[in-house]
Amino acid sequence: MLTAATLVLTLGGCGVDPLTPQAARAEAGDDGKAGAESRRVDCARVKCIALTFDAGPGKDTPHLLDVLKEKRVPATFFLLGHKHVDRYPQVVRRIADEGHELANHTWSHRILTDLDEGEVREELSRTQDAIEGITGRKPVLMRPPQGRTDSTVSDVSRELGLAQVLWSITAKDYSTTDSALIEERVLTQAHRDGIILLHDIYDGTVPAVPGIIDELQRRGYTFVTVPELLAPGAARAGAVYRPEKD
């Protein structure tokens, strides 16, 4: 998994210039304040943070959805097609029905920068079609595996109507089953306009979520989906979004 520092080098070396949530809001005019009365949350004024989950759905996703519903917290799910979307269509439908944002994490988690243009298109379009077949709606966001992107990935993403969303907070939950450690890592890195990366497929992750939510709410954070974090700006297809820490 890439660190934030590596991501900077990877993106910079490919000529891909990431945008921050603040920049997305500013693109809408008036520093993101225009039309605030029509939105659920105004992240230009409120201390927002986005909770995102990669590589699901999995066996623990229904319990995660129970937690999010109980705590009234929205999340963004970057779904993997093969053995996930196609295995758990009822869970995909539930994610959509309960108001969370569905997004694309490729079909088989291949590193997109290792592929040619046609292979990148196949990885993304198969998952687009699978999610649309279940929910009636194609995602508008994607997350490249390991955060690896380049100009080819950006071009194909633009063609498919997908903005690329990276992250600024990671618990590296793929490397531990210690829920307390996962919680600690997230809380230590938390910042305004941050995007938290977790995986609902690892055993230690879902048990850590209630504590993460409770503590961040105690600190005054409001949980939002990624589109809400960018509003009133809209994620531009092909563009890369990554928050910067204060």
TrEMBL record:
<protein>
    <submittedName>
        <fullName>Deacetylase</fullName>
    </submittedName>
</protein>
<dbReference type="InterPro" id="IPR050248">
    <property type="entry name" value="Polysacc_deacetylase_ArnD"/>
</dbReference>
<dbReference type="InterPro" id="IPR011330">
    <property type="entry name" value="Glyco_hydro/deAcase_b/a-brl"/>
</dbReference>
<keyword id="KW-0479">Metal-binding</keyword>
<dbReference type="Pfam" id="PF01522">
    <property type="entry name" value="Polysacc_deac_1"/>
</dbReference>
<keyword id="KW-0378">Hydrolase</keyword>
<dbReference type="InterPro" id="IPR002509">
    <property type="entry name" value="NODB_dom"/>
</dbReference>
<feature type="domain" description="NodB homology">
    <location>
        <begin position="47"/>
        <end position="224"/>
    </location>
</feature>
